[in-house]
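Running this now, will post back.
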Amino acid sequence: MPGHRRSAPWRIADLFAHEREATAYDGVVDTCLAASSITRRLGKRPQATAENVRANLLVEANVRRALEPCRENQRRFREALDAYETLRMRAAYLHDPTAPTTVLFLLLLLGLAGSLVLAAWPVVAVAALLATLTGAAIRRHPVWRMHLRHNVRELALTAVLWVREQRADRWERRWRRDLEVHGVGPLMDRIVEALLGEDRDSLLLPDSYEGLRSPRNRQYVIVSDASRRLSRKVAQLEGGTIAVSGPRGAGKSTLLETCAEEADFAVFVQAPATYSPYEFLLSLYIRVCERYLTENGHAVPEFGRLSAFRKAARYVAPAARRVSRYLAFALPAGALVVLGLAAAVRSVGLRYDDAVTGRAQDFWHALTGPAEAIWRGERAGAALVVTLTGVLLWRLRRRRPLDALMGPVRLLTVACGLLLVVASPASLFLDPDVRHHAHTLLTEPNMALPLLLALLALLSLYLPDDLGWHPGGVTLVGNRGRRAIAGTLVVVTLALLYGVSPVHAMLTDSGNPLRVACVLLGVLLVKAGGWSAPQPEPPLVRECRNQLYRLQTVQTSSSALTAGPPQLLAAHTTSLSTVPPNMPELVSDFRELLGSIAQERFARKGRVVIAIDEVDRLGSDTQALAFLSEIKAILGVPHVHYLISVAEDVGASFVRRGLPHRGVTDSSLDDIVHVQPCTLTESRAILERRAPGLSEPYSLLAHALSAGIPRDLMRYGLRIMEIEDKTRFFELTDISRQMILEELAETLAGFRTLLGKQQWNPETSAVLLSFRSLMSHLQHLCPCPSADLQRALHHVAFYDLEGQLGAASAQVPDPSRLLVDEASTYVLFSLTLLDIFGSPDFARRMASAAETSPDGNPDLLAQARQELEVSPYSARSLIRAIRAAWGLAVLRPGDATAMIPRPRSIPCALHSAGA
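Update: finished.
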């Protein structure tokens, strides 16, 4: 019976008939409160505590709601509990102390039963006599008889009571599981949600964020629209060059890796930052050869700076170790087998020597007679047939028909081997002496138990591996221990049986060595039937290995010739060294080899993919186009798909083909796939896969800051978790302000570096002072709303260059003016995010903005971030429209404060630790 952890809620008497029911319900409440999905939400807001949740679950109305889906199991549990309690009360009423005579009588009965099982007949007789005498004595004594009757009845009642207790426990466990899954668990979720409040999505409560910590992990990749378009284009083309274009971090490398994994033969390479077309092609050539060797199960040649002796030792030493280990077992085993079977084999040889020798001589004459006639020229037709047969046999050395001819021979060999393996033991049943000894053994009355033990010992060797003795979860006897015990039992049993005369006679029968020899011969024939001649090395494998030697080594050959009389020696030495292939030769050989591989895979409905990544890493679009122009010679191999990741400007060059003139992309690329930034829906799907349980406001915040770029999206998602771990903030207003202001401080530091490289004078340096003052405000970050920081952000976001500098604004050069506009627009974007996410009641305000205007669509925040990379002026116009839809202040240059307030010099006393 389980103990009571605390007093049960008996105030709900009409719902629980037994205290154990109430205790079980209370235990389920504890179990659900300990679940990770509940504990991570408790304590995040003042009213959401474990005590409040428990108090709500003990309210009568909520208890009824929790029990309603589990009524059937509760009824079964109550019935089992009623039956158990009734029987327990009866057992307590009939309880009688156990008498010594009862113990003695039961021990005698157990001894009698054990002696019957062991077939110890003298012990059986003694135990039966004692049990009879004790029973007679008890039957004559009325008090002893009464105690025996009560004790036996109580013993039987205890057994039934244990069965009913186990039944009640089983139904209790079922009811607990039912309550946890369908009753208390769902109700507790709703209660916790209600205690968290209406704006509960503003809390940061992810289930896990392991996917954000490993951005390269392939198990978190989702199927995107770009991947589907790339798969369709690859499936439509038998071969060609497809470019994957998009901004950095958009997932181009992931698309190439996914497509390469789906191909039958694929090589994934990265374009070097400082490329040399010859070195790149050489590296690609080597990768293709190595990949082909590896996929076909052949080792890649190793080229090490070792002496010839050490190279030979590296290859010979492992083989020598294997051979020595093999011989260490083979020689003693062979010697023992030969010693044991020599007499039997020799007797068989002497018995059939004359007959076998005669048959062999006849067969030899039948073979050599025609051969001698052909050799003497007496059979011209047979000579022609033999000649053609020899030519045909040579032609079949590399063809499959030879395997077809060897198939029946292998089948006949295996059949003969199996016949020997089965027939040799079966001959025991035909031996009259063996049958006589077996009959004597089976009819012996004392041999039944030893034979049964021997059979059980043999069967114990073939029990499943997962069986063992694990009492209380502790492994006392594992698989190895069980097998060792079983093997020891088999050996001991066989040793005991060997001393029995019938068993000894059967084991020492004179025909047994011959039977063992036949079984071994049959096993050898079965092994020989599975042997096949080593297949010749495929031509492409040999070609790839030769090309690796050619491309990675320099081979030198020399010869010397000495001529003349001994006193006048003349030496002539010749040296030959290989020359590395030049670029045209390398291109020709590469195309030929890759074409052969592609033709082989295409015949098997396979696909060959060469993925070239990081072309956009070369720098400018001019360098990338020059790289494509250099490697254009290796493109266009039949049945080969080249996938090349390029930057957006290279993709734009392909889209503009022929306008106003044709470029290298027109002739190098067959098609292009543009990878666009993720939409809000796609960003949510990525974050849901990598951080389950991340609520919508945080997904929207990461999407807006990353502009929908997957790499930045995961980086900002991890940044959210980092801020939560560092500051212990859980509210959207606190985390978003901290994150946006940190990102703004880092970005403004970069802008200040760029502005510092421009030319300024005393009249125009006020611009730098404005940015410096704003960065001073961002020095001590804090989620607390600050009016001074808000005015400083407005001052820079709506910066009026003419109003601040007056006539000196004309002295600001255009590059500096553009940098100021870009920086102020980015500050306006950050201020907009701060106003949207840093204010309470986000869900209501988002719904209101979406209903007010199309510019209230949350996805426009990421589009505004994308527009910042195009032009600060178009981005500012879009941001102003977004602010109007969300009901935020829309100022114009000159409306902001003329001066930035002085920043505070010390951190916030409330959030100094988190800052």
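Residues 1-8, 116-124, 466-477, 658-666 have pLDDT under 50 and may be disordered. More later if anyone needs it.
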